[in-house]
Amino acid sequence: MQVIDVASVPLKEIPHIREGVFRSRKLLTGTEGSPGNFALQLVTTPETYYSPRHRHNFDQVRYQIEGDFDFAADGKMKPETIAYFPEGTHYGPQTSKQKSLTLVLQFGGASGSGYISTEQYARAATALAGTGSFEKGVYTRTDKDGGKINQDAYEAVWEQVNGRRLVYPKQRYASPVFMEPAAFCWLPLAQHPGVSSKLLGVFSECEIRIALYQLQPGASLPLRDNAIYFVDNGSGRAEGHGYEKYTTLYLPAGESGTVTAQTESVLLQLGLPQLD
Question: Looking at the predicted structure, is the pLDDT value of residue 245 above 90?
Answer without folding.
Answer: yes
